[in-house]
Amino acid sequence: MNLSMIKQALELKSKLEKTQKELAKMTVEAQSGNGAVKVTASGQQKILSIKISADVIDPENPKQLEKLVFKAVSDALDEAKKLADKHLGKLTGGLKIPGITD
Fold first, then answer.
1. Rounded Cα gap, residues 27 and 58, in angstroms
2. CATH number, domain 26-91, options 3.90.950.10, 3.30.1310.10, 3.40.50.720, 3.90.1170.50
3. What is the pTM of this model?
4. Is 70 exceeded by the pLDDT of residue 100?
5. CA 48 to the chain's CA centroid
6. Do 53 and 35 meet the contact criterion of CB atoms below 8 Å apart?
7. Burial class (CB in 10 A: 0-12, 13-18, 19+), 100
8. Do the beta carbons of residue 1 and residue 19 sit within 8 Å?
9. What is the average pLDDT across 30-44?
10. Which end of the chain is less congested by CB atoms within 10 angstroms, N or C?
11. Closest by CA position to 43, among listed 72, 13, 85
12. Cα–Cα separations (whole angstroms), residue 30 to 4, 26, 58, 69
């Protein structure tokens, strides 16, 4: 490995770390049940909050609430992944790098 390649690798590492910090501050929100369940996730694909409207809490039908929560969480994580792919893809030139752009 020559010096130029090492320098490029260090620059990429620095840019990746900066982008990861930026993604940690970015958020996406998904909802289900016409907004009855809202989930916020970070750009690092971590769930930050789940809000559930009292209107959808039915002790007689917990499966319905489970479905709404599952859908909102899945959608939030999908959106967070798209956000991360968009920002990290700029750095990697579209290359899929395991652990960075899965």
1. 29
2. 3.30.1310.10
3. 0.79
4. no
5. 10
6. yes
7. middle
8. no
9. 96
10. N
11. 85
12. 43, 14, 21, 10
